[in-house]
Specification:
Elements lengths: L1 E5 L7 E4 L14 E8 L4 E6 L1 E4 L4 E4 L10 E10 L5 E4 L5 E6 L4
Parallel strand pairs: 1-9
Antiparallel strand pairs: 2-6, 3-4, 3-7, 5-6, 7-8, 7-9
């Protein structure tokens, strides 16, 4: 996944379909999910809750907040699920997904 958004934009939201290594959707019933975004070579800049759009289908959404995309650059993102038994699983678990924040013209 490479998600691209313009500097200072808050739309569109970022959607993710959390799946296991076989491509089967993760059941998020009773879970919570957090969105983490970290500048490449830098610090974590976002650690916020996500909205579970479809629990059985493993679909989650992060709605950008004012300030989230103010600094252009390349960022790594991950989605951290905490299940009802307090175990934690991070997606994707075999790579880093990226978000590109493209500079505005003005």
């Amino acid at each position: 996944m490479a998600f691209t958004i313009k500097q200072s934009d808050t739309s569109p939201s970022i959607l993710a379909n959390l799946q296991d290594s076989n491509g089967t959707a993760i059941n998020l019933n009773g879970a919570s999910v957090r969105f983490h975004m970290k500048a490449v070579g830098g610090a974590v800049v976002i650690d916020e809750p996500m909205t579970i759009v479809n629990a059985a289908g493993g679909i989650v959404r992060y709605d950008w907040q004012t300030g989230d995309t103010d600094v252009p650059g390349t960022y790594y993102v991950e989605f951290e699920a905490t299940y009802s038994d307090n175990t934690i699983e991070t997606f994707p678990n075999n790579t880093n997904e990226t978000v590109l924040v493209i500079p505005q013209l003005n």
